[in-house]
């Protein structure tokens, strides 16, 4: 199977957001990845509900919303109402992760777990069966354009084994530093979804770059 490609809108041209979303609609992208940052869980602030709602107005593909915020459980329903199709919360930000995953599913959205580079995937043993998606951060969250962390390959293998052992249906998503050079090995190790921000939107032909990622083996 070819990978799912989820371009990160955080790297797009915000002054031309509608045209950027329409470009993604017409490309081979599968999802639109939306990074929500609160300036507390990560040292940066991105955007909130009004921008997400604006993206949803024009998007013809599912919105993959990645919450890099503290106390995400306070906002799950609101993000779903604003257009999120998948909602991922950080294991490091959730005191009661199982409850939060159930809360996401109760809204009708798919439930994802995001994992920082320093966090072991073995912490997910007791909740992996409840997740639809695990987003492995291959850079430290908060900023785009960072260098890919090589240890990610080992984590994908460990996570893939855990998914099989626990009979989970969770997809493995890789977020950070994805490019044409590391994509083949990411897929070989077991990645299902590739998030690409700067690599796509800084390309001369973003749609062709998405197509190239999509055809990677």
UniProtKB/TrEMBL annotation:
Sequence positions that bind substrate: 8, 66, 142-145, 175-177, 197-198
Cofactor annotation remark: Binds 1 divalent metal cation per subunit.
Record's keyword terms, sorted: Carbohydrate metabolism, Cobalt, Isomerase, Manganese, Metal-binding, Zinc
Catalytic-site annotation from UniProt: 35, 175
List of residues binding a divalent metal cation: 33, 35, 66, 175
Gene3D superfamilies documented for this protein: Aldolase class I (3.20.20.70)
Necessary cofactors: Zn(2+); Fe(2+); Mn(2+); a divalent metal cation
UniProt cross-references to CDD domains, sorted A to Z: RPE (cd00429)
A GO BP annotation: pentose catabolic process
Pathway: Carbohydrate degradation
MF GO annotations: D-ribulose-phosphate 3-epimerase activity; metal ion binding
SUPFAM superfamilies hit by this protein: Ribulose-phoshate binding barrel
Superkingdom of origin: Bacteria
Catalytic reaction annotation: D-ribulose 5-phosphate = D-xylulose 5-phosphate
Record's GO cellular component terms: cytoplasm
Similarity annotation: Belongs to the ribulose-phosphate 3-epimerase family.
Described function: Catalyzes the reversible epimerization of D-ribulose 5-phosphate to D-xylulose 5-phosphate.
Protein name: Ribulose-phosphate 3-epimerase
Gene source species: Pontibacter chinhatensis
